[in-house]
Amino acid sequence: MEGVKAEAREGAAVAQDLLALGYGGVPGTASRGASCPDFRALCVRLAAELATLGALEQQREAGAEVLSAGDGPYAEEDFLRQLGRLLRELHCPDRALCGGDGAAALREPGAGLRLLRFLCSELQATRLLRLRSLLDPSPRPPLGEGVVEGAGMVQELGLTLQALGLPRPAPGTPASQLLQELHAKISELQPSLPPGSLQPLLSYSLDAPRWEALESLSQSLRDQYRCRRYLLLKRLDLTTSAFHWSDRAEAQGEAMRAVLIPIREVLTPESDISIAHVLAARADLSRLIPATSMAVRRGTCCAINKVLMGNVPDRGGRPNELEPPMPTWRSRREDGGPQCWGRKKKKKKK
Questions:
Q1: How far apart are CA 231 and CA 267, in angstroms?
Q2: Final residue of a structural domain among 257, 273, 296
C-alpha cells in the first residue's frame, strides 16, 4: 500500500514538472517503460530539447540523433541503447538506469517515473542556464583566466595535469575537451598498473534511499568531527597561551605571535571531507598497516629516534601505589589530659 501511494505521489510530481515545462501529462502507460511508444516519444522530445539548448554537446557535434522512438520490432532495443549513452553523458546518478540491463531496470515499478523526473530536472536546469546567459551577455573567462591562481578547483586541476604528465591547457580550452583528454590519458595508463589497482572502496550501487542514508551519515560525522576539532583547537589555544606567561616570553611575544597566527588561522573546526572523497576512495585505503612495520619505518625513521632520554625526576601521580593512612584514635579530653571512660578496676587488697 505504501509503495502504491509513493508511486502515485511520484507520478503527480512528474506530471507537474511536465506541465511546467510545457509538455503534456504523464502517459498512463508510463509504468510499461521503454515498451510503450508514448513513453519513448516523450523521452525523445525531452532529449531533443536538451540537445537544442546545448546540454548534449557531444551528440550535437557528431550530428547523430539523440533518441529515436521508432516503430519497428527493434525499436525498443535501439531506444535503450541510445538512452544508456544519453544518461551516461548527463551523469545520471541512478546506477540502475545507466547499467547494462536497462530494459529490466525500466520494467521495475516506478523506474519510468524516475527517468522522466531526471530528464525534467535536467531540462529545467538547462533552461535556467540558458536564460542566465541571455540576461548576462558578458563573456565568461575561459579556464585559467580570471581565476586566482591557487584556487581550489584550478589548483586541483593543475596537480592532476602535472601528475599525468600533460601540459597546461591553452586559454579558452572547453572543459569537455579537457575532461576527454584526461579520460584518455588515464585509460592509457591504467593497464600498466598492478592487477586490482584503482578498485573502488564503495562497490555497491547507490539508489535514492542509499544516497539519502549516505548524506545523513556524512552530516552526522561532520557534526561529530566539528565538535572534536573545536575541542582540540581550544586545547591548542590554551597551550600556546601558556608559553606567554613566562618572563622570557615578554621580549619574544611579538615574534611568537607572528609565527603562530598564520598557522592558527588556517585551522578551522569545519571538516573538508565530503561524499566525493568517499566515492573517490580506493580499496587499498582500508588496508591497515602497523605503524611499527618495516615498510612504514622506512619513511618515518629519522635521527631523533636514536636519541635516548636521560633520567627524569619522579613526579608521582600513581595513587594505586600508596596505602591510605590509618586514622589514630584519641579519647575526648576536657582539661587537657586524657579521659578514661568506663569503670575503674578495684585494687586487690593484699
A1: 12
A2: 296
C-alpha cell at 19: 506541465
pLDDT digits (tens, 9 = 90+) for 198-232: 788 888 888 888 889 989 999 999 999 999 999 99
Report yes or no on 142 lying in a domain. no
Question: Tell me: the pLDDT tens digits for 60-101?
Answer: 544 456 777 767 767 777 777 788 788 878 888 777 777 656
The neighbour count for residue 106, using CB atoms within 10 Å, is 24
Where in the sequence is the domain holding 75, given as residue range(s)?
A: 1-135
Is 221 found in the same domain as 109?
no
Local confidence band at 26 (pLDDT 50, 70, 90 cut-offs): low
- pLDDT for position 187: 85
pLDDT of 272 above 80? yes
Distance CA 307, CA 162 (A): 39
Average pLDDT, the chain: 76
Q: What is the 3-state secondary structure (H, E, C) of 301-336?
A: CCHHHHCCCCCCCCCCCCHHHCCCCCCCCCCCCCCC
Task: Yes or no: say if 295 and 275 are a contact pair by the CB < 8 Å rule.
Answer: no
C-alpha–C-alpha distance, residues 90 and 4, integer Å: 29
Residue 131 lies in a domain: yes
**Residues 20 and 110 placed together within one structural domain of the fold:** yes
Residue 99 identity (one-letter amino acid): G
Of the candidates 73, 8, 14, the residue with the CA atom closest to the CA atom of residue 39: 14
Residues 6+ positions from 108 with CB-CB distance below 8 Å = 96
Q: Is 196 exposed, middle or buried (0-12, 13-18, 19+ CB in 10 A)?
A: exposed
Mind listing the pLDDT tens digit for each residue in 129-151? 877 776 655 554 444 444 444 44
* Distance (Å) of CA 213 to CA 89, 275, 332: 26, 12, 72
Which of 280, 296, 312 is the C-terminal boundary of a domain?
296
Q: Where are the alpha helices (DSSP H) in the chain?
A: 2-21, 37-52, 57-62, 75-89, 95-98, 102-106, 111-135, 152-164, 175-189, 208-242, 249-266, 275-280, 294-300
